[in-house]
Amino acid sequence: MVVSTSELAVLVFVVLCLSIPTCCLSSQGIFDQHVALFVFGDSLFDPGNNYINTTTDFQANHWPYGQSYFNPPTGRFSDGRLIPDFIGEQYPKSYQLVFPSSFRHSLPYHNTMPLDAAEYAGLPLVPAYLEPGNNEFTHGANFASGGAGALIDSHAGFVVDLQTQLQYFGNLVNHYKQSLGDTKAQQLLSNAVYLFSCGANDYQKPVVNHHSIFHPYTHEQYVDMVIGNLTNVIQGIHEKGGRKYGFVTAPLIGCWPGIRMRQPGNTCSVETDDITRLHNQKLSRKLKKLEKEFEGFMYAKFDISTSINNRMKNPSKYGFKEGEIACCGSGPFRGIYSCGGIRGIKEYEVCENSSEYLFFDSFHPNEVASRQFAEIFWNGDSKITEPYNLKALFEGIPNDEL
Questions:
Q1: Would you state the pLDDT for residue 132?
Q2: Is 103 in contact with 179 (CB distance < 8 Å)?
Q3: Of 46, 85, 116, 361, which residue is the catalytic one?
Q4: pLDDT at residue 100, rounded to an integer
Q5: Which range is least confidently modeled, 113-122, 161-170, 357-366?
Q6: Looking at 139, 238, 279, 364, which residue is catalytic?
Q7: Residue 279: which pLDDT band, with cuts at 50, 70 and 90?
Q8: What is the average pLDDT across 50-71?
Q9: 361 belongs to the catalytic site
Q10: SS3 annotation, the chain
């Protein structure tokens, strides 16, 4: 028996409808326990927001980026998917959100993003907020920008800083309220999870630019500024209804390929790692304080620094052949940021099998590593993900306070 494409589509639709308990649907077609994902931060999470109004130093929308999964490249600073992409795959199907078409068409563009063949739930990738032609934010949005930091001065004018990311989120909140009404919008925002990767660029930029590191501030003062700006953004989201947050610690980048090649004798940058450790200590203390001060505040903090360092020191234990040399770039450790040959230096090398290298380019882990990190973030125990893991936040009881 031959079944046409249209007949198959109808059959799938009918099966899905029969499998959905009608008690879970609201009058607006929304699953009551939908959990949206909103993403903020830097290139560790950026899905392609830097397509717009910047230089090639802050873009990754060219080959060989994306070579392991995307064709054409999307702007992710990796050979494939990133941590939020894998987190998105973990969504339970019962949390899927269906918006009325009026919401989709109330936004300035229509969605043209390719869908992810999500191995867990079959949901689309959480889209880049600034992707031209894409505003299908039914499952959340990704505001992260490669090169961004908590400080506005970190690559100012070339990236979307964290405060501006918050402003974009505010614009999206207004769309939700206009389309869903205040009550449903607040329910969505309260049940959502907010992911952050922020801080690395604030500590990396002075090293890369050969500035007198962190002058005129002491390490303590500099870190307090970074944590203060991050806290302001968290507070801004909390005021709009956000309650559940996921944070990756700032990675210790002092021994990464892009830093070592700049150091005398290709040694590690001890000062960079020292101030980053201070950042992570202060972040932990701040989050514990916010847990007491902010109503309903819950969080998962993933110690990505330890996970990366373990893989650098013992790559074979985690399925890699190389933990210190990047797959793509040039110079010592392939640490010169020339991957793709469009950042001022034409010459570069690219390895034969990027999955064997912990680092895809001078500053970014590959897709295999991102998958491993996402799994730890999702399921990790309290030794590395505390006080909750992301699974606990996504599968927790919805916040009904609002």
A1: 77
A2: yes
A3: 361
A4: 42
A5: 113-122
A6: 364
A7: very high
A8: 87
A9: yes
A10: CCCCHHHHHHHHHHHHHHHCCHHHECCCCCECCCCCEEEEECCCCCCCHHHCCCCHHHCCCCCCCCCCCCCCCCCCCCCCCCHHHHHHHCCCHHHCCCCCHHHHHCCCCCCCCCCCCCCCCCCCCCCECCCCCCCCCCCEEECCCCCCCCCCCCCCCCCCCHHHHHHHHHHHHHHHHHHHCHHHHHHHHHHCEEEEECCHHHHHHHHHCCCCCCCCCCHHHHHHHHHHHHHHHHHHHHHCCCCEEEEECCCCCCCCHHHHCCCHHHCCCHHHHHHHHHHHHHHHHHHHHHHHHCCCCEEEEECHHHHHHHHHHCHHHHCCCECCCCCEEECHHHCECCCCCCCCCCCCEECCCHHHECECCCCCECHHHHHHHHHHHHHCCCCCEEECCHHHHHHCCCCCCC
Confidence class for position 275, pLDDT limits 50, 70, 90: very high
What's the residue count for the chain?
Answer: 402
Give the separation between CA 285 and CA 252, rounded to whole angstroms. Answer: 18
Structure-token pair, residue 215: 């002058």
Q: Which of 88-92, 140-144, 317-321 has the lowest mean pLDDT?
A: 88-92
Asked if 153 and 161 count as a contact pair (C-beta separation under 8 A), the reply is: no
pLDDT at 213 over 70: no
Q: Which of 43, 179, 330, 362 is catalytic?
A: 43
Cβ neighbours, 10 Å, residue 43: 26
364 labelled catalytic = yes
Q: Which amino acid is at 288?
A: K
CATH (residue range 32-319+366-395): 3.40.50
Task: Quickly tell me which residue has 């920008």 as its tokens.
Answer: 145
In the residue annotation, 211 being an active-site residue is answered as: no
Residue ranges per structural domain of the chain: 32-319+366-395
- In whole numbers, what is the pLDDT of the chain averaged over residues? 83
> Can you give the pLDDT at residue 7?
47
CA distance linking residue 331 with residue 222, whole number of Å? 31
